[in-house]
Amino acid sequence: xxxxxxxxxxxxxxxxxxxxxxxxxxxxxxxxxxxxxxxxxxxxxxxxxxxxxxxxxxxxxxxxxxxxxxxxxxxxxxxxxxxxxxxxxxxxxxxxxxxxxxxxxxxxxxxxxxxxxxxxxxxxxxxxxxxxxxxxxxxxxxxxxxxxxxxxxxxxxxxxxxxxxxxxxxxxxxxxxxxxxxxxxxxxxxxxxxxxxxxxxxxxxxxxxxxxxxxxxxxxxxxxxxxxxxxxxxxxxxxxxxxxxxxxxxxxxxxxxxxxxxxxxxxxxxxxxxxxxxxxxxxxxxxxxxxxxxxxxxxxxxxxxxxxxxxxxxxxxxxxxxxxxxxxxxxxxxxxxxxxxxxxxxxxxxxxxxxxxxxxxxxxxxxxxxxxxxxxxxxxxxxxxxxxxxxxxxxxxxxxxxxxxxxxxxxxxxxxxxxxxxxxxxxxxxxxxxxxxxxxxxxxxxxxxxxxxxxxxxxxxxxxxxxxxxxxxxxxxxxxxxxxxxxxxxxxxxxxxxxxxxxxxxxxxxxxxxxxxxxxxxxxxxxxxxxxxxxxxxxxxxxxxxxxxxxxxxxxxxxxxxxxxxxxxxxxxxxxxxxxxxxxxxxxxxxxx
Length: 593
Known about the structure:
The chain folds into three domains: 3-164, PAS domain (Beta-Lactamase); 174-331, Reverse transcriptase/Diguanylate cyclase domain (Alpha-Beta Plaits, 2-Layer Sandwich); 349-579, EAL domain (TIM Barrel, Alpha-Beta Barrel), CATH 3.20.20.450. It contains 21 helices and 23 strands. Helix 7 (205-212) runs antiparallel to helix 8 (214-229), helix 11 packs across helix 12 (387-396) and helix 13 packs parallel to helix 15 (442-453). The longest helix has 22 residues, at 400-421. The protein is elongated, with a radius of gyration of 31 Å.
């Protein structure tokens, strides 16, 4: 029976496991099955081969020692998978079988010192213990124990592996898998290179967990990890990225090849019968797939897209596959509807967060003139979620006005606390969506909240995008006139992006123009962008309007803007957005009208 077919439930080997829990030196005396069960837990790298020197199994620490996240592949010749060299850098031939030795003459154990040459060129000094693996008098293969000669290195290697791998399946964990995926994306790959990312959800896992217990659920995941590993090709990477979810990166793989591999995965899993006590379960997979090429988004977004495709496959029933490209619009719509529910929950559970980014006066030694207010969401796991992931859904499904009201109410409460605590009276710029701008009741809501909070209107600025202002021109004018009459100021955001900017500018009584960052960002390299910034600044000055440059990301860019005469700037070259500083006082209410 192949090594990969044994599972921890096999009671025949439980007693033998205790012998090798922390030391691999006794593995050579165990059966092949007991060896596999134990090898994942020892603090050494372990490789099991057949009689001809082909790898049958390697534990994750063997891959860690070799500097290879993918691990050593079953079927690979030991000489190809384990790059051993001597002190002079010459390749070592372990000569496992010997030239003319009879089986009975093969020593049961021998040991040597060598170096593992990693892909980076680094040499890792190890001791290599070679044990013959026998079934009675018959030779079944060999077990190699790879151990750092330095105990400190050995412990460090073990701790490094534990932090980057799932303790149950010994596969790379989500953080490690995402890092490896991002490293692949960062490589300078050719335009034709393509990979496929699979996201796999285990059907029936929760049933096993709930009815048979966590031990049964753990055993099922271990068995499935082994089945999936057997389907890997050279360089493929499998990781456990959720409680019952795996991710598989197929390197240098076409879409047609991926479909064949997916079929093999499904058949391998659906053909497996999980037995526990008197119960039998037939697991299945839901699989989502996305293409990974030079135009792919960051690793976290790729995983999210693959998860979306997997969810769509799961909704269609067990053992289904969904390729992201098959229905991109449907998957995007699904993701947005998911965000819609999450936004509702975030408002209800007070998980929206207020951030701020400074806008500085370029002609006054970069003194902070005011802050732009930005909104983030805190996920259920505590992570901070970028607005680019949830605000588009809020806008599409008409929830953005609820977010606007939450921001208005809470920033006014914060400004009131800031004012009463003596922490200063900073000015804040608040973004207003097109939906809120078109709501005839919104201006009165803002004025009411402003009065109840007791905040000076002169401290409040509203930012309206050029497109929203033009599309809702009549409503925008009513809103601007009402709030300016109360003492608030206004900025026209993303100015220059629309084709009708200049035609409408004279109709909009604004105090600031925010020059679109797409022009500012490249103005040092692009003369046309530089001319656009200069033209907008000159026009604004003639109309008595101050200018703010977005995306000011380098000192050189800031100096250019200062020389050009732009009044204010905002961007990473000054400071990134940060959470509002804590102020002692009562916590603001988060109810939404």
